[in-house]
Amino acid sequence: MSRGLGRVVLGMVLVMSISAATYTAPSSSALTEENLLFLEAWRAVDRAYYDKSFNGQSWFRYRENALRDEPMNTREETYAAIKKMISTLDDPFTRFLEPERN
């Protein structure tokens, strides 16, 4: 590799390293407790669901769209969003069971 090309590559690596080091991810405080509950359900399905095509949908895109578009202001709305997410899998053996209330 020529010296000039080596310097360019090294410079790019340094810029990328500095950029990665100074990047801070959005804080989770921007997410509500209800959003976090939804994400917990989403992650459980993401890790354990047998069909990694998730019934032919982009599972990551579904998560982003749901967090943006689905109302999750109350526990009931969050449970409804989780049930809607599960229903997109079109799998009669995968379902969300709400915890029992006393």
Automatic annotation (TrEMBL):
Gene Ontology biological process terms from the UniProt entry: proteolysis
UniProt keywords, alphabetically: Hydrolase, Protease, Serine protease, Signal, Thylakoid
Superkingdom: Eukaryota
Molecular functions (GO terms): serine-type endopeptidase activity
Keyword Protease included in the entry's annotation: yes
InterPro entries: ClpP/crotonase-like_dom_sf
Gene3D superfamilies listed in its UniProt record: 3.30.750.44
Entry's EC annotation: 3.4.21.102
Signal peptide feature range: 1-20
Localization of this protein: Plastid, Chloroplast thylakoid lumen
UniProt entry tagged with the keyword Protease: yes
Catalyzed reactions: The enzyme shows specific recognition of a C-terminal tripeptide, Xaa-Yaa-Zaa, in which Xaa is preferably Ala or Leu, Yaa is preferably Ala or Tyr, and Zaa is preferably Ala, but then cleaves at a variable distance from the C-terminus. A typical cleavage is -Ala-Ala-|-Arg-Ala-Ala-Lys-Glu-Asn-Tyr-Ala-Leu-Ala-Ala
GO cellular component, as recorded: chloroplast thylakoid lumen
PANTHER family attached to this UniProt entry: CARBOXYL-TERMINAL-PROCESSING PEPTIDASE 2, CHLOROPLASTIC (PTHR32060:SF7), TAIL-SPECIFIC PROTEASE (PTHR32060)
Family, per entry: Belongs to the peptidase S41A family.
Summary of the function given for this chain in its UniProt record: Protease involved in the C-terminal processing of the chloroplastic D1 protein of photosystem II. This proteolytic processing is necessary to allow the light-driven assembly of the tetranuclear manganese cluster, which is responsible for photosynthetic water oxidation.
Name of this protein: C-terminal processing peptidase
Phylogenetic placement of the source organism: Eukaryota, Viridiplantae, Streptophyta, Embryophyta, Tracheophyta
Name of encoding gene: ga25385
